[in-house]
From TrEMBL:
<dbReference type="Pfam" id="PF00560">
    <property type="entry name" value="LRR_1"/>
</dbReference>
<keyword id="KW-0732">Signal</keyword>
<feature type="compositionally biased region" description="Pro residues">
    <location>
        <begin position="62"/>
        <end position="73"/>
    </location>
</feature>
<keyword id="KW-0964">Secreted</keyword>
<dbReference type="InterPro" id="IPR032675">
    <property type="entry name" value="LRR_dom_sf"/>
</dbReference>
<dbReference type="InterPro" id="IPR001611">
    <property type="entry name" value="Leu-rich_rpt"/>
</dbReference>
<keyword id="KW-0677">Repeat</keyword>
<feature type="signal peptide">
    <location>
        <begin position="1"/>
        <end position="26"/>
    </location>
</feature>
<dbReference type="InterPro" id="IPR051582">
    <property type="entry name" value="LRR_extensin-like_regulator"/>
</dbReference>
<dbReference type="GO" id="GO:0005576">
    <property type="term" value="C:extracellular region"/>
</dbReference>
<feature type="region of interest" description="Disordered">
    <location>
        <begin position="53"/>
        <end position="73"/>
    </location>
</feature>
<protein>
    <recommendedName>
        <fullName>Leucine-rich repeat-containing N-terminal plant-type domain-containing protein</fullName>
    </recommendedName>
</protein>
């Protein structure tokens, strides 16, 4: 050893020390955690929470961060305040009905919000009859709104103070609830031009306040209860449905002003009692049914009638001269029947007549006054059997019709005029000839 130079030993000892130091560092790195790298120190502006640095090397995933604090629930809206408790009562029914409306092309229901029901579109308020200081929902007018809903049940019958309900030209369907008979003030009901079906809503018979009923242009079927024609109605429109029955004998048992049964399937003769009972009627529309038999001379008692339309039925016989007593009549339609004989001049002399349609019948003669109406366009006698006039039936067709004998009862009554007309008269009739005409 003494012979070895110190300069030679120094590099050897240095190499041994470096090797030992590297070995110690290697063993330490496998058994201890790596030091955290912190930039900027505490409060230095960098990230200083536990999720910023590298997580410890463990076999388990770090726990999920705690959920954010829950958003407190929106407090329920304050109770709606209504100007009258009667409005609070109908509010749920309105909102429920709104929820079943499947089509609202005009955006009507957008206004049905909040407690101010009196400003909802289509809703109108007034004082009810039993309390002049109260405010109630008095009428509903949905005419022309084109709303679609599967039923009115649970809505109309839940409006206790309703007086008028008009819902013309919508797409409401289903049947009518019997509960509507419990509505004490309802006097106008118009559900025309919708999609209602089923039998006639008999609950209407129990509505003593009702004076206006319009259910036309729907799909009601079956028969109409005879009691309907005994109700104290001013207006009865049941046309354009699928009612099928004999025309009731008591059809003229009220003071009705407008009676429309058109476009159904009523059959049988026009009762002789009908005209006398309805002496105040303004319009009678029986067109497009299956009425048969001869015209009763009693139609001359419809003295207030402005319109009398029985076109497109199966009526036969002559026109009664008594029709000349309808001094207020403007429109008369007998077209599309099996009427025959002479067109009476007493009828053509009516002063207010603007349209007299006798086409598509089997008349054989017209008088001078009637010819003037033909020239002026007031009278239409096309497709008859009148010689010398254009657009008539063929001779063969007329001969075939008259080959079948047709007899009407009480024939003497057809030339009887039951009123005083300055230029016309008729032979007197005995009681036996008028019997059994109702009184």
């Amino acid at each position: 050893m003494g012979g070895i130079s110190i300069k030679f030993l120094i590099p050897i000892f240095s190499f041994i020390l470096v090797s030992l130091f590297i070995n110690v560092l290697g063993e330490t790195g496998t058994n201890r955690e790596a030091p955290h790298l912190i930039i900027g120190g505490v409060g230095g502006g960098g990230c200083n929470n536990q999720y910023c640095s590298t997580p410890p090397l463990t076999s388990q995933r770090p726990p999920h961060p705690p959920p954010p604090p829950a958003v407190p629930p929106v407090p329920p809206p304050k109770n709606l305040v209504f100007v009258d408790q009667r409005l609070a009562v109908v509010y749920p029914a309105i909102q429920k009905f709104k929820s079943i409306i499947t089509s609202d092309p005009l955006g009507i229901t957008k206004s049905w919000l909040g407690s101010d029901i009196c400003n909802y579109k289509g809703f109108y308020c007034d004082t009810p009859p039993d309390n002049k200081t109260a405010i109630a929902l008095a009428s509903v007018d949905f005419n022309g709104f084109h709303l679609t809903a599967p039923t009115l049940d649970g809505f109309l019958d839940q409006l206790p103070d309703i007086a008028l309900f008009h819902a013309n030209s919508n797409n409401f369907s289903g049947t009518i609830s019997p509960k509507i008979s419990n509505l004490p003030y309802l006097y106008e009901l118009d559900i025309s031009n919708n999609q209602f079906s089923g039998s006639f809503p008999t609950a209407i018979l129990g509505m003593n306040s009702l004076s206006f009923l319009d259910i036309r242009f729907n799909f009601f079927t079956g028969s109409v209860p005879p009691q309907l024609f005994m109700k104290d109605l001013d207006v009865l429109f049941i046309n354009n449905n699928n009612f099928m029955q004999k025309l009731p004998d008591n059809i003229g048992s009220s003071h009705i002003l407008y009676l429309t049964l058109a476009n159904n399937k009523f059959f049988g003769p026009i009762p002789r009692s009908f005209p006398k009972s309805l002496s105040t009627v303004s319009e009678v529309l029986f067109l497009n049914n299956m009425l048969s038999g001869c015209l009763p001379y009693e139609i001359g008692f419809l003295k207030q009638a402005a319109v009398f339309d029985v076109g497109n039925n199966q009526l036969t016989g002559p026109i009664p001269f008594s029709l000349g007593c309808l001094e207020n009549v403007e429109v008369v339609n007998f077209a599309g029947n099996f009427l025959f004989g002479v067109v009476p001049d007493v009828v053509c002399a009516l002063g207010n007549l603007v349209n007299l349609s006798l086409s598509d019948n089997y008349f054989i003669q017209v008088g001078p006054l009637c010819r003037k109406l033909i020239l002026s366009g007031v009278l239409d006698v096309g497709k008859n059997c009148i010689p010398g006039l254009p657009l008539q039936r063929s001779v063969a067709e007329c001969v075939a019709f008259f080959a079948q004998p047709i007899n009407c009862p009480f024939m003497p009554t057809y030339t009887f005029i039951p009123c005083l007309l300055p230029h016309f008269s008729s032979p007197p009739l005995g009681l036996s000839e008028l019997a059994p005409s109702p009184s």
